[in-house]
Amino acid sequence: MAFLSDTLARVKPSPTIAVTNKARELKEAGRDVIGLGAGEPDFDTPENIKQAAIAAIAAGETKYTAVDGIPALKKAICAKFERENGLRYTPAQITVGSGGKQVLYNALVATLNPGDEVIIPAPYWVSYPDMVLLAGGTPVFVEGKMEAGYKISAADLEAAITPKTKWFIFNSPSNPSGAAYTRDELKALTDVLMRHPHVWVMSDDMYEHLVFGDFTFTTPAQVEPGLYDRTLTCNGVSKAYAMTGWRIGYAGGPVELIKAIGKVQSQSTSNPCSISQHAAVEALNGPQEYIAQSRVAFERRRDLVVAALNACPGITCPTPEGAFYVYPSIAGLIGKTSKGGVAITDDEAFASALLEETGVAVVFGAAFGLSPAFRISYATSDAALSEACARIKAFCEGLH
């Protein structure tokens, strides 16, 4: 009898974490490495949020809390949804988890049965398919081609829906592409979903506040109120407030689904960190200036990286609408050989050779379900990004 679960054999470790760990190991070994793999703001958590956590510790807020969130945080989340998204939820419709990832995973565990299908647009966040597999479902991929801005069309979505479809996972702005759907583009998708009442919507809005230029963010239940009763609107404080390590994610949805998510959480992790919850209350209710300041920095970095990558022979880099990622195509480099003698047969070979020969760590496109490409997180300093892009350009110029 095998010791490890058959279910575990269906999934793989997170490639983005693997790249980050590899870059860290090389740095510790003395290599000059620029890590562009982690999706983590390089800014510190705003001071008012840190002080709220310190005050919570001083006040003795160090005990177990309600499994799915303290009342003050649920109230703050309700206020946020109404203020920023025009969505009205009661505290009974809110769940809080240890990061956005836990909220998504809990929802899938609570709802999927063997044979249930989950539609996932590609390129996708690396964890979506494996969470579906761990929960017993079947991921169904719909490709958003680079020529379409890495977005899927209404016809693409319609063609993927079957009687077995239970969820449509929607992520805008997207990790890994940074693509964001306009209100009209989203309305076309929600019109399809309205024709298929058995399909639920899991909207991952984690990068909501990181949109650039005059782009306006919208979320499915906001665009189509008819989807409100079968949409789980997910978000968190990690990206918007540089709180990745605090591990607080949340979602709003129908009461019965929220209860089911809470049931899963009660038998796994129980409550999120009490101190982090109090910090998140301050993040949502307190001053919001940090968001605008970080958005300016990320937009500047986006423009720097897009321009630099498009100057590299064989690379084509679309300009994303949001998040802090770019997803350039390397179709023009496949079949070439690096100075170090590595054949660029695919994007994994490209990323591996780039790291070994230049010290720049990126994540290969196959990890996100769309090749040949790679993902750069530009959530690091302008200086590091300029140097990394210069190394990428020299690497590309050295291919033959």
TrEMBL record:
Keywords of the record: Aminotransferase, Pyridoxal phosphate, Transferase
Reaction it catalyzes: L-aspartate + 2-oxoglutarate = oxaloacetate + L-glutamate
Segments passing through the bilayer: none
Cofactor(s), names only, from the UniProt record: pyridoxal 5'-phosphate
Superkingdom as given in the UniProt entry: Bacteria
Keyword Secreted part of the UniProt annotation: no
GO biological process: amino acid metabolic process
Protein's UniProt keywords contain Transferase: yes
Subunit structure: Homodimer.
Protein name (record): Aminotransferase
Source organism of this protein record: Rhodobacter aestuarii
